[in-house]
Amino acid sequence: MDFNTRCIHGTTTKYDRTGAVSVPIFQSATFAHPSVGQSTGFDYSRTQNPTREHLEKTMAALEGGFEAMAFSTGMAAVTVLMELFSPGDHVVASDDLYGGTHRLFHHISIKNGIDFDFVDMASADSIEALIRPETKAVFIETPTNPMMQVTDIAAVAALCKKHAILLIVDNTFLTPYFQKPLLLGADIVLHSGTKYLGGHNDTLAGFLVVSDSVLAEKLLFIYKTIGACLSPFDSWLLIRGIKTLPIRMERQQETAMKLARWLFEQQGIVSVHYAGLPSHPGFEISKRQSCGFGAMISFETDCPQTALRILNQVSLIQYAESLGGVESLITYPMLQTHADVPQTEREAKGINDRLLRLSVGLEDADDLIADLKQALEARTL
User: Fold this and answer.
1) Which residue in the list 6, 46, 103, 240 is annotated as catalytic?
2) What is the pTM of this model?
3) Which of 195, 226, 243 finishes a domain?
């Protein structure tokens, strides 16, 4: 089944006989047994629910995976993921991570005895140099949040196979529409479903998609034990959002490209981080492993005052902490998504008081440019 068709129809499994075009919301905590020792296949919604199962089967198919699990948030998905590891295990992770992931690793996972090394993932050699007998996984975002660094997934996958360790890829920014890490050799794909998959800034969700039955069995046990599953209604919202994923991703990328090129030429903007620009260091890798560049842009202004004026002056673009929805949002990473990262560490990565992150929505490109233009020009008033 074509990707676009799969987004609309999901799994071919039917859960009711009414002919409902929309997947029903099975808003039930528990399910009755036909008789002793028999089950409808659904017993308790923490373990599985028909609405959530439809969503999970859809996500597994879209990513080309064996099994998918839908969580109450993206961070719930990461938390369950880290339960694969035991005290003394070692993980190599990107040194440019979403702030919530950074916080979990540094304040929860390390406390629980998991050891980390953080490294620029631009070179597979730099990753291999950190692998040791205790290493169990490599964790990457690509593109990274917020600096939009790109990692060669296939190269890192080959390295992980060589050392018999897991490769985990956060695919939130590109979604399976633009990038399929499992097909490039990854073992586990992570998503904040809150973002592009949901697409409307109206619900929280997370996903893990795995490549094989062994990983699925391990994670499903942790999943049902911890109980951070996605509710039936929120599952339905994600099913609805995914129906329009391809057309949203295409339009948002088209607009993002226009904005990135425009920003690149503006006085007051000293650098633009967007993987779709030929000047981006990961441009060629992106073309090879992805079929699109997404709609996330980070850019650095000439001074903190310019950054603050843009945040205060934009009116169509909203100053809010999230991304991937139909509304364009602008974020100040140092105060929002990455506020918990120590200042010296944050600034060493380029996350300074001049950096802004822009999630491009579905508004008209000229309207967004006009909004940014008036905000930039306000700095001279």
Assistant:
1) 46
2) 0.96
3) 243
